[in-house]
Write a structure and sequence with these properties.
Elements (H helix, E strand, L loop, with lengths): L1 E4 L4 E5 L8 E6 L3 E7 L3 E6 L5 E5 L4 E3 L1 H9 L4 E2 L3 E5 L5 E5 L7 H4 L7 E2 L8 H5 L12 E2 L2 E2 L1 H11 L8 H4 L4 E3 L10 E5 L5 E7 L4 E6 L1 E7 L3 E4 L4 E11 L2
Length: 249
């Protein structure tokens, strides 16, 4: 088994080993992975944080030893907390990093970071404050940054910045936590999941107070939530059908 680390700001992970393939997620600065298969130009990897698998360009990561991989994972994660920041590299160069980058890896990479960061586990009521940092971020399939994010990337990053681990896709996140029977039982920070006509879970958002929800749909936005699902006032219609509410924390 081989191992890798990412020293660039935002690395695309694709479903197949080609630049034309679907973007399935983004990998932020400082994350580490297992390298499952190496080809001439592409490698198939498994991310350490959520075990998500896909293909990355070999020019966009660095190999590390198993001991280094293990040592990095045993350290408490330290994440950047500003929407955009900078890491100083060697030879007086810098790399810009987005919110939620793993800046605890800077010492291993021989980089320098002097910005704001956190390694705390925050109480549940802090989730909404973090979620609002992404408000109006445009929707991007596979995105995980304030420059473009999808619905499950949004929930995963909000929870990650507060010290909690969610899986990557909405259907995977729906397997976590405790199901609630009624919407009235929900608390700010709980997750609401929505399905399509075939019954597959395709959307997720974070419940707020007074039956509002913040979610990524066109952009990160706030809408009403009722027993039927999400009601969009601009469209004057329900846009998503409620399937289940889960309490993760």
């Amino acid at each position: 088994m081989q191992y890798g680390i990412f020293s660039l700001s935002i690395v695309p992970m694709r479903s197949e080993p080609t630049d034309k393939s679907e973007l399935v997620t983004q990998i932020l600065y400082g994350e580490v992975c297992k390298v499952l298969e190496v080809r001439k130009k592409w490698s198939r990897i498994r991310l350490a944080f959520d075990n998500y698998e896909g293909w990355i360009d070999n020019k966009q990561f660095e190999f590390i030893s198993e001991d280094d991989y293990t040592n990095i994972l045993t350290e408490t994660p330290v994440l950047s907390t500003d929407l955009v920041d900078m890491v100083a590299m060697e030879q007086n160069t810098v790399v810009s990093i987005p919110l939620g980058s793993t800046v605890g890896s800077v010492s291993f990479l021989k980089h320098t970071f002097e910005g704001n960061a956190t390694s705390n586990v925050f109480p549940k009521d802090h989730l909404i404050e973090t979620a609002l940092l992404y408000l109006n971020t445009p929707y991007l399939w596979g995105g995980k940054t304030p420059f473009g994010i999808d619905c499950s990337g949004f929930t995963q990053m909000v929870y990650k910045l507060n010290g909690y681990r969610l899986l990557r896709d909405a259907s995977q996140q729906a397997t976590q936590g405790e199901a609630l029977s009624f919407i009235e039982e929900s608390e700010p920070g709980d997750l609401a999941f929505f399905d399509n006509a075939e019954g597959a879970i395709v959307h997720v958002g974070i419940i707020m107070e007074d039956h509002y929800i913040i979610h990524a749909h066109g952009k990160v936005r706030i809408d009403r939530l009722d027993h039927s699902g999400i009601f969009n006032y601009e469209e004057r219609a329900h846009t998503h059908k409620l399937r289940v509410i889960k309490r993760i924390i």
